[in-house]
Amino acid sequence: MKRKIGRQEAQVLAYAQMRKLRVVRTGDLREPLKLTARQECKVLSRLSQAGMIARVWRGVYLAPPRLPLGGKWSPGEFLALDTLMATVRGRFQVCGPNAFNRYGWDDQVPNRLYAYNNRLSGERRVGGVTLMLIKVADRRLGGTETFQTPEGLTVAYASRERTLVDAVYDWSRFNGIPRGYEWIRRELKARRVRAAELVRCTLRYGDTGTIRRMGVLLECLGVAETQLRKLQRALRPTSSPIPWLPRVPKRGPINPRWGVVENDRS
Question: Which residue, 96, 129, 158, sits at the end of a domain?
């Protein structure tokens, strides 16, 4: 059964649907619906609390094209993310577990949408959508491919190569090591990624630890020496080696070329 709503709430929903307004901002309704600022604020708040529209940001809401049976509505995850980022004038790209699932490496469907962006950090809810926002520097945005959603949105996903680099770079957040190493082995063997592009992506979006670990792996996989030298030139000599597997005790032989303790390279 649909929820009972007041006259003002019904007017707002009808107006948004008639005008095909996907985004409603405070100030949009005062003149056409003859509302005061206080009335507008209250009616939008009531609709949001009732789950009939979704609050994106202070004074910014998403409205449904039509209210479904039962009266509850939530936007799609890409619409929620795109609207939020447009509101704060940010750039973003979907990453981590969502990209792992997209490329078929992990069959677990994430219950939240992970996105690198240059504005916000932390968890945020928009209607029934949970967004996990990871703020990064502008220089760490890139290495993407885009696709069109049924809603007509253009969404940027981290590319295959970029996602593999992120699995190693952001291993603690995404649980990317050691499984990311196996993904890299498989993708190179199947020729879905090229070693040269993986090296380029590592140098551009990785850090020292990422370069060292990627160097060990690619050398083990027999990647051309010309590509390995590109990684090596980006490194400085170190007397503090890092572990190949960060969560395993730091015991084992040290690879002097890459400064990595090979604590388990099976």
Answer: 158
Q: Residue range 21-48: average pLDDT? A: 96
**pTM of model > 0.85:** yes
Name the average pLDDT for the chain. Answer: 95
Give the domain-ending residue among 73, 90, 116: 73
70-101 pLDDT per residue, tens: 789 999 999 999 999 999 999 999 999 999 99
DSSP label at residue 2: P
Q: List C-alpha distances in Å: 110 to 6, 143, 171.
A: 37, 22, 17
- Give yes or no: residues 81 and 152 share one domain: yes
Would you state the torsion angle of the CA atoms of residues 226, 231, 236, 237, taken in this order, to the nearest 10 degrees? -70
What distance in Å separates the CA atoms of residue 157 and residue 163, rounded to the nearest whole number?
A: 9
